[in-house]
Amino acid sequence: MPIISRIKPVDLTATKNVFVSAVRFATSTGGSCPPFGDELKISAQEQIEYMLGEDEDMPLVTADDEVKSVVRMGLSRIFSTFEKQLSSLVLESDLALESAEANILQCVSDLEWMCNILPKMELMKDFVSSWAGTSGNVVGEMKPILDSKCTEDASFPHKMDEDLCQSIEGAIISVVLALPSNDQADILADWMESDQVRYPDLSEAFEVWCYRTKSAKRRLVEGSGRVDNTAVSLE
């Protein structure tokens, strides 16, 4: 028993070191793993998937604050690269667009991979938080720029699909209207104060909220009136 107690920490430390190194390679961006490049990155991702699924020590490893910090930094690095590459679409020359598109697709692939492993580490909330921030930046910085480019040049290759935009907008409206009235009020207030009122256009949600609020107030007043009348008749 004393021998096992001495050996186990060494094994756990070794597992942690391997996992941390794999995470750093797996979340590297911009071809930062020479000379093996993508092959080493893919191998690192596969190693992480295997360890999370098969290694009995992993619950202890993933609970370590240092390990969580490394994973969070990797996630942040991927999101940051994703935003930068999106921004480069409107700045790059035609010759560089193909490379930018490839980098964006790689970032999307990396984010999809992170989305699959983070729940196993109880870090999915970090992904959701980062995605919410990135989505806001993409809509608030990228969409107006892309719309402007499309207006200037009808042949601009990165025009946002109008049907898709409308579908997303409709989904957002449905989600907002499904929330409690107070939450709707907060969201709509933020939306009206935003510089990007054009998209998503929550005018429909605002109108429905106003109608529901007025109807609820009217029912409340009518109900109060009936209560008062009943009280008077009882007297």
Can you describe this structure?
- InterPro entries: At3g05675-like.
- This is BTB/POZ domain-containing protein.
- With 235 residues, this protein is mainly alpha-helical.
- The chain has helices at 2-26, 38-54, 58-62, 65-88, 94-117, 124-152, 162-177, 181-193, 203-234.
- Helix 4 (65-88) packs parallel to helix 6, helix 7 runs parallel beside helix 9 and helix 8 (181-193) packs across helix 9 (203-234).
Brief sketch in words of this structure:
The protein has 235 residues and is mainly alpha-helical. 79% of the residues lie in helices and 0% in strands. The longest helix is centred in the C-terminal third of the chain and has 32 residues, at 203-234.
What are the salient characteristics of this protein?
mainly alpha; 235 residues
Topology:
Elements: H1 2-26, H2 38-54, H3 58-62, H4 65-88, H5 94-117, H6 124-152, H7 162-177, H8 181-193, H9 203-234
Protein name: BTB/POZ domain-containing protein
InterPro entries: At3g05675-like
Organism: Salix udensis
Number of strands: 0
The pLDDT mean sits at 78
Write down the overall geometry: flat
Strand content: under 5%
Radius of gyration of CA atoms, rounded to a whole number = 26 Å
In which range does the helix fraction lie? over 70%
Counting DSSP H or I runs of 4 or more residues, the number of helices is 9
Report the uncertain regions.
1-9
* Assembly status: single chain
Alpha-beta classification: mainly alpha
- Please give the largest β-sheet: none
Give the topology string: H per helix, E per strand: HHHHHHHHH
Terminal Cα span:
85 Å
